Automatic annotation (TrEMBL):
PANTHER family reported for this sequence: UPF0102 PROTEIN YRAN
Name of the protein this chain belongs to: UPF0102 protein K9U37_17230
Signal sequence, renumbered to the chain: none
InterPro entries noted in UniProt: Restrct_endonuc-II-like, tRNA_endonuc-like_dom_sf, UPF0102_YraN-like
Family (UniProt): Belongs to the UPF0102 family.
Highest taxon above the source species: Bacteria
CDD domains: PoNe_Nuclease
Amino acid sequence: MTTLTRAQLGALGEQLAVEHLSSLGLRIVARNWRCRYGELDVIAEDADRTLVFVEVKTRTGDGFGGLAQAVTPQKVRRLRRLTGVWLAEQEQRWPAIRVDVIGVRVGRRREPELFHLRGVG
């Protein structure tokens, strides 16, 4: 794999995450939604109408810590705030919501690895 910029690496990770979610039967509702408080990477809906807000973390290794270190309590609070802002803008309602994190590790010599943590916040 050639050297990717941070933006390209992030876009690759998000695309792999979307493909993973789609393969699980989730319908993608929105990608890269932004407001003044930040960004939600992926918003999806599963078969039982649970709305899933997905934070995607893409890394080339574990030099900055693994997935657990990337999702701090502060990050979870920020994601919950963003989900509240997004939901307030919607006319539709969902019976349940969930925040997931998908970690993608892109190495130079092997296929990307994907880790999916459900219900982090």
